[in-house]
Design goal:
The complex is a heterodimer of chains A (233) and B (107).
Chain A: H1 3-38, H2 43-52, H3 56-67, H4 72-83, H5 85-94, H6 102-109, H7 114-126, H8 131-155, H9 169-181, H10 185-204, H11 209-232
Helix pairs in contact in A: 1-3, 1-8, 2-8, 3-4, 5-7, 7-9, 10-11
Chain B: H1 3-28, H2 35-42, H3 44-58, E1 59-60, E2 65-66, H4 71-86, H5 89-106
Helix pairs in contact in B: 4-5
Classes of the chains: A mainly alpha (233), B mainly alpha (107).
């Protein structure tokens, strides 16, 4: 295959992988746009935010804090804490991008979200994936996100909430991506541990720390169980 | 707020969003990783997905309580079976949405 058709193939694969993410992002982006508009944030500021800060949950928090009159410094700090979980995802992706040029990585890192991470990780592991497809997925999802948030800010008040069960798109995607990850007993066990710890942490401790806390502790427990089992053999 | 105030705020938020995503990637991809780290990181995706998903299915927010009858959870069971059977991401998303939409009428 020549380079050009290879490039087209990578791009197509990336687009095919991105569409479930886009379906999930669209209603959430719309909702964010509507909220921002109601909070008195102009549409161009929403566009600027989605371009500079591609991070759904942090953007929701930002809108809420802006309308509550919280200082910019506090908003930036909260954003930092909420998005720290992406260090874990970035580290896990590093395994599949060893030795890749820093310029590519700098461009790729911008699009690492919960959803693109899960999709890319699954595809990388199955082997039928290259970094250009992954980059396409990331940036297509970002493009849809920007469009959706701006659309929401401009005309979102006319869109009925909860149309077509669209609120379930991201949950459905997470369920399937979780299934892709279950490749042996240790993965199932680790997943169950993460679920229990996450629910417990979520109930007991306010804020978003449950995601990182549960992931790190479940992966560590799973790792030690795996190692002990290997030693017994 | 003025244009410049927004710009400053979003640049600050953008920086603290981008750096945690970029630094591990830039650092770890140009280093030989020890085997234990590779093994541990291999368990991170399943943990993160499970940690994100479980509270959405088993908890209500404000106030945070444990729940076993949420429509999200009930719909998740057939959606999970569909995902296990077909391994189709797009299909699972659509089936989940359809069942959730249906549940809005039935429940």
């Amino acid at each position: 295959m020549n380079t050009q058709s290879k490039n087209i193939k990578s791009f197509r694969q990336g687009m095919a992988a991105a569409w479930p993410i886009c379906i999930g992002y669209f209603p959430i982006g719309l909702a964010l746009g509507v909220l921002a508009q109601k909070a008195g944030i102009p549409w161009w500021a929403v566009a600027m935010m989605s371009v500079l800060v591609f991070a759904g949950s942090a953007q929701f928090i930002c809108v809420a804090m802006l309308s509550a009159g919280v200082s910019p410094l506090a908003i930036i700090f909260t954003t930092f804490v909420v998005n720290l979980r992406h260090t874990l995802m970035s580290s896990a992706l590093a395994i599949y991008l060893a030795g890749v040029s820093r310029r590519f990585l700098a461009l790729f890192a911008y699009g690492i979200t919960d959803e693109s991470f899960a999709v890319n990780m699954t595809r990388f592991r199955s082997g039928s994936w290259n970094r250009w497809s992954a980059l396409t997925t990331n940036h297509l999802a970002n493009l849809v996100w920007i469009l959706a948030t701006v659309t929401g800010a401009l005309l979102g008040q006319f869109v009925p909430p909860a149309a077509f069960g669209i609120d379930y798109a991201l949950i459905g995607m997470f369920i399937c991506l979780l299934v892709f990850q279950l490749q042996g007993r240790i993965y199932i066990l680790t997943g169950l541990l993460a679920a229990v710890i996450s629910v417990g942490w979520y109930l007991l401790i306010p804020g978003d720390s449950y995601i990182v806390a549960a992931s790190v502790s479940a992966a560590s427990l799973g790792y030690f169980l795996q190692r002990r089992k290997r030693r017994e053999r | 707020m003025s244009f410049n105030e927004y710009l400053l705020l979003f640049c600050g938020m953008g920086a603290v969003t981008y750096l945690p995503r970029a630094l591990p990637l830039l650092y770890l991809t140009h280093k030989k990783l020890p085997q234990w780290l590779i093994d541990w990181l291999g368990l991170i995706p399943v943990s993160i997905l499970s940690a994100l998903l479980a509270p959405l299915l088993f908890c209500s927010d404000s106030p945070r309580t444990l729940q076993f009858g949420k429509p999200e959870l009930l719909v998740a069971i057939p959606t999970l079976l569909f995902a296990l059977k077909t391994k189709s991401l797009g299909g699972t998303v659509l089936v989940g949405m359809f069942l959730y939409w249906l549940a809005g009428y039935v429940l």
